[in-house]
Amino acid sequence: MDGDGKNIEKLTNSAVSEFSPSVMHDGRILYSRWEYVDKGQIGVKCLWAMRPDGSGTVEIFGNDIALPPVFIHSRPIPGYNNLFVVLGPRKHHSSRQWPVPAGRIAPDALTAAPGASDVAAAA
């Protein structure tokens, strides 16, 4: 898409929900993706990235963990190429900010940000 909003181009043909994009420091697009195959209905929204032309899709984090079940509104942390802040529910109807190490897919890689406060989840 151009800066004036013209020339919008579809980047994927995914049958699943892909949402909440942001731009990573390396220019790729970071987004949440609904991955539901062989999973329950809750723990299915993880982080993915793609090049600006839609190629090179890759899972960044969260496809194989149970908690938090959803990663949304991810943003890169200024000054760090391998850390992101995301919102994810800690329990029903609340969210918390979490730092997520890029490329590390393991439950022990997820910790609540020091001093992070709970915020109301969007309905």
In short:
This protein has strands at 18-23, 29-34, 45-50, 58-61, 72-76, 83-91, 94-101, 119-120.
List the helices and strands and how they pair.
Elements: E1 18-23, E2 29-34, E3 45-50, E4 58-61, E5 72-76, E6 83-91, E7 94-101, E8 119-120
Organism: marine sediment metagenome
Protein name: Dipeptidylpeptidase IV N-terminal domain-containing protein
Features:
single chain, 123 residues, mainly beta, 4-stranded antiparallel β-sheet, globular
Describe this structure in words.
This is Dipeptidylpeptidase IV N-terminal domain-containing protein. It comes from marine sediment metagenome. The protein has 123 residues and is mainly beta. It has one domain. It is built from no helices and 8 strands. It has a 4-stranded antiparallel β-sheet, with no helix packed on it. Strand 1 and strand 2 form a beta hairpin. It starts with 17 loop residues before the first strand and ends with a strand.
**Which shape, going by the Cα principal axes?**
globular
Major sheet size, sense and barrel closure: 4 strands, antiparallel
| Count of discrete structural domains | 1
DSSP summary: helix tally: 0
**Distance from first to last alpha carbon:** 29 Å
Tell me what portion of residues adopts beta-strand conformation: 35-45%
Share of helix, binned: under 10%
Largest sheet, spatial ordering of strands: 1-2-3-4
Structural class: mainly beta
- Tell how many strands the DSSP assignment holds: 8
Q: What is the oligomer described by this structure?
A: single chain
Low-confidence stretches: 101-123
Order of helices and strands: EEEEEEEE
Radius of gyration: 15 Å
Q: What average pLDDT do the residues reach?
A: 68
